[in-house]
Amino acid sequence: AQTVTQSQPEMSVQEAETVTLSCTYDTSESDYYLFWYKQPPSRQMILVIRQEAYKQQNATENRFSVNFQKAAKSFSLKISDSQLGDAAMYFCAYRSADQFYFGTGTSLTVIP
Amino acid sequence: EAGVTQSPTHLIKTRGQQATLRCSPISGHTSVYWYQQALGLGLQFLLWYDEGEERNRGNFPPRFSGRQFPNYSSELNVNALELEDSALYLCASSTNGQRNTEAFFGQGTRLTVV
Q1: Which of A43, A52, A55, A91 should we substitute to test contact with B (largest number of B Cβ atoms within 10 Å)?
Q2: A30 touches chain B (CB under 8 A)
Q3: Which CATH number, 2.60.40.10, 3.40.50.300, 3.40.47.10, 3.40.50.620, labels domain A3-111?
Q4: Among A94, A100, A104, which would you mutate to test the B interface (most chain B Cβ atoms within 10 Å of its Cβ)?
Q5: In this complex, do B33 and A99 lie within 8 Å of one another by their Cβ atoms?
Q6: What are the two backbone dihedrals, phi and then psi, of residue B46, each rounded to the nearest 5 degrees?
Q7: What does each C-alpha distance from B1 to A24, A27, B84 come to in angstroms?
Q8: Residue A73, CA atoms < 13 Å, CB-side half-sphere
Q9: What structural domains and CATH numbers belong to chain B?
Q10: B44-92, pLDDT tens digit by residue?
């Protein structure tokens, strides 16, 4: 079975600074998709960014980018120019054929 | 376009009772996923329905069950409620069951068992 590990339960960043959230996963599959979701206090899970495993180029979405290292099975999220609205729980997810596997999440605090 | 909607938003039940949670996927989505989010435990996979069929089930006891209706909406039933069932239950939908499709989440149902 696939597993997703987020080793940082909590992180903090100063407003306008950059922060990187870590995620590793374990799989024997070669074709899969990875996602980062954000869950603010409102509880609504929102997709931040996605990465296709067969694409070597790292995905970027405005201030959000990933560092995808397939061989190392690592999928970190970088948030640049952090804003107060970025404060939330961030979940890394692995999509296999039968379900989404989620990490335990990283709670991000943005300090004004 | 309406997103994934879940009802009720909050639900309080007594131990031993049954709870029914409902989910309406985004229009055109055929896959529905259910997750339990207990405090500090992340998202635990419960059930996956696609095209009206149960496709996969997580490691939960049989008192957790559900179904998907012809209009692709879904229902999660929890029988013989236990205190540990208190959690946020999230429903998500995707266009289909293919792995390149992202999941869109509802706002969840907060179930409290007293």
Answers
A1: A43
A2: no
A3: 2.60.40.10
A4: A100
A5: yes
A6: -105, -60
A7: 34, 35, 36
A8: 16
A9: 5-113 (2.60.40.10)
A10: 999 999 999 999 999 999 999 999 999 999 999 999 999 999 999 999 9
